[in-house]
């Protein structure tokens, strides 16, 4: 489609609005997923099965993995063949936008096909070849016969969160990083977000979660909206943890911010698990090579409960084996989403080892009928 989404009346919806489908990739690359991804595939299948109880799910798998994925997934999950460099469909799939029709009429759905450079390009990105990932959004939109807006700006879906009422959350650490769009300044990036997401105000947090070096601090590990004017913030009470400084810094920004409607923000603290580190066994299971960023033993994992998925009538929540904070996260999210069932996914550490979490591997497609 020509022009920008906003010029056609399109906007990005909040993630808690009703979905018609969830999209998930399928992991396989041995330099990112240990033991030829067998552990990660079990977790991805568990996530897909959990979400499929509340909304339709499509899993995208390569030709060599299609049969394996089909065997591991429930029959009600659609599996399609789609070649990818890696399985982060939040970042490489389309950002769906909608245009509301007249009362009683269906919404129009379109998708934004952003540019992608593997989180930083040849020198700083996560892998050297992203020639397949750069086609993911276009392929998905063609499968769904959905109009496509194309944009040359580098942007991953995990770097933005919206409230559905004209406000967008992001981080300076990611969007202002020179390895993304060095030719654009802050004001120009804001203009593009407004034109493509249909928002009117951007709230910038300085940094993302400590240790989230792969994405340069995506917002979806750090902070998200749970409803208009209410946010969840990754938090720690441990003043010796490097995350503490980042959490306090973000809290101060959010405390002084207002949304597009002029409302002060309510901040709900969601404590991160105690620090997690990659083990010798986990690192040894990787096929380390020149194409992907090294994942050595002892590195801190970017684990956050903020990285959950909102399905229709459910929230799908990662669990890391830290009983105290796992239980606390389920309680806090249950209070934040009183009309949703909290579904916990044990063993989500396996996804974090690859550089993301449940929100990172999923992408919601809005329903055509507003509810």
Automatic annotation (TrEMBL):
Which residues belong to the signal peptide in this entry? none
What are the UniProt keywords, alphabetically?
Hydrolase
GO-annotated molecular function: agmatine deiminase activity; protein-arginine deiminase activity
Please give the Gene3D superfamilies that the UniProt record associates with this protein: L-arginine/glycine Amidinotransferase, Chain A
- Alphabetical GO biological process terms: putrescine biosynthetic process
- UniProt entry tagged with the keyword Lipid biosynthesis: no
Supply the InterPro entries for this chain: Agmatine_deiminase, Peptidyl-Arg-deiminase_porph
- Family annotation (Pfam families): PAD_porph
* Stored NCBIfam families: agmatine_aguA (TIGR03380), PRK13551.1 (NF010070)
The protein in question is named Agmatine deiminase isoform X1
Native species: Rhodamnia argentea
What taxonomic classification does the UniProt entry list for its organism? Eukaryota, Viridiplantae, Streptophyta, Embryophyta, Tracheophyta
């Amino acid at each position: 489609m020509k022009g920008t989404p906003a010029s056609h009346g399109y906007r990005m919806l909040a993630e808690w609005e009703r979905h018609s489908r969830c999209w998930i990739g399928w992991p396989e690359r041995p330099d990112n997923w240990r033991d030829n991804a067998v552990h990660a595939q079990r977790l991805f299948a568990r996530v897909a099965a959990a979400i499929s109880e509340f909304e339709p799910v499509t899993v995208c798998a390569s030709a060599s993995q299609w049969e394996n994925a089909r065997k591991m997934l429930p029959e009600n999950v659609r599996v399609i063949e789609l070649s990818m460099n890696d399985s982060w469909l939040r970042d490489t799939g389309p950002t769906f936008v909608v245009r509301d029709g007249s009362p009683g009429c269906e919404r129009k759905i379109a998708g934004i096909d952003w540019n992608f450079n593997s989180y930083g390009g040849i020198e700083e990105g996560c892998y050297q070849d992203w020639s397949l990932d750069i086609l993911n959004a276009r392929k998905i939109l063609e499968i769904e016969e959905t109009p496509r807006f194309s944009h040359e700006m580098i942007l991953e879906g995990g770097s933005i969160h919206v409230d559905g009422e004209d406000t967008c959350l992001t981080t300076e650490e990611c969007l202002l990083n020179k390895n993304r769009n060095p030719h654009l300044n802050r004001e120009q990036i804001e203009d593009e977000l407004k034109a493509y997401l249909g928002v009117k105000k951007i709230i910038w947090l300085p940094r993302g979660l400590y240790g989230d070096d792969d994405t340069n601090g995506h917002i979806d590990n750090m902070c998200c909206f749970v409803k208009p004017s209410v946010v969840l913030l990754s938090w720690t009470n441990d003043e010796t943890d490097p995350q503490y400084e980042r959490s306090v810094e973000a809290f101060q920004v959010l405390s002084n911010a207002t949304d597009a409607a002029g409302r002060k923000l309510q901040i709900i603290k969601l404590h991160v698990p105690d620090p997690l580190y990659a083990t010798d066994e986990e690192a040894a299971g990787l096929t380390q090579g020149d194409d992907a960023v090294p994942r050595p033993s002892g590195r801190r994992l970017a684990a956050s409960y903020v990285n959950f998925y909102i399905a229709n009538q459910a929230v799908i929540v990662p669990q890391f084996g830290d009983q105290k904070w796992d239980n606390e996260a389920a309680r806090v999210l249950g209070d934040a989403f009183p009309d949703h069932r909290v579904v916990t996914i044990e063993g989500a550490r396996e996804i974090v080892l690859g550089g993301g979490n449940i929100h990172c591997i999923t992408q919601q497609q809005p329903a055509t009928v507003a509810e």
